[in-house]
Amino acid sequence: MTPVIALVGRPNVGKSTLFNRLTRTRDALVADFPGLTRDRQYGQARFAEREYIVIDTAGIYGDEEGIDALMVEQSQQAIEEANVIFFMVDGRDGLTSTDIEIAEHLRRGEKNVVLLVNKIDGVDADQVMADFYQLGIPEMFGVAAAQGRGVSHVLDAALLPL
Ligand code: GDP
Ligand code: MG
């Protein structure tokens, strides 16, 4: 089976930037991958001779209603289809309450979660990483999706066990 990675997180953290970088905008032929539906954006990608599928999602908004009400169907479906979740946060914004709610939601699922702290260009990476450490996701990586910085480390770690 081709491994599937879902990109989830708040809007504007850089999910689509990473998606485009990984797939170079080549859309997957969804029909070739049974079990995947068409209402999300799928891309086909390759890393170190390894084919995989990436799912981009529109993003999870947070407010006082709580994440279960707000976890949009699209993100939930992507999570269910994926072998591993790339949970992306914004290193410039720092940790937000919505990030904490998303982390709690993901922890209740059984899928492997990798935390991607994006936009570490131009910030104090060590300080920002320490901030997000309290989300309790041991696999965390600082990346700059716009420049591709750190991305190969993430793929190495994420695809190896799949
Ligand atoms: P999405 O809503 O999560 O899909 O986020 P987008 O991929 O649309 O990106 C939101 C904004 O963040 C855009 O203006 C991107 O150019 C910017 N962005 C994405 N990655 C980076 C990065 O690594 N560094 C910086 N500084 N900006 C980034
Ligand atoms: Mg997007």
UniProtKB/TrEMBL annotation:
All copies of domain EngA-type G, residue ranges: 3-162
Binding-site residues, GTP 1: 9-16, 56-60, 118-121
Organism domain of life: Bacteria
Role, per record: GTPase that plays an essential role in the late steps of ribosome biogenesis.
Family membership: Belongs to the TRAFAC class TrmE-Era-EngA-EngB-Septin-like GTPase superfamily. EngA (Der) GTPase family.
Subunit structure: Associates with the 50S ribosomal subunit.
Protein name per UniProt: GTPase Der
Gene: der
Portion of the full sequence shown: 1 to 162 of 499
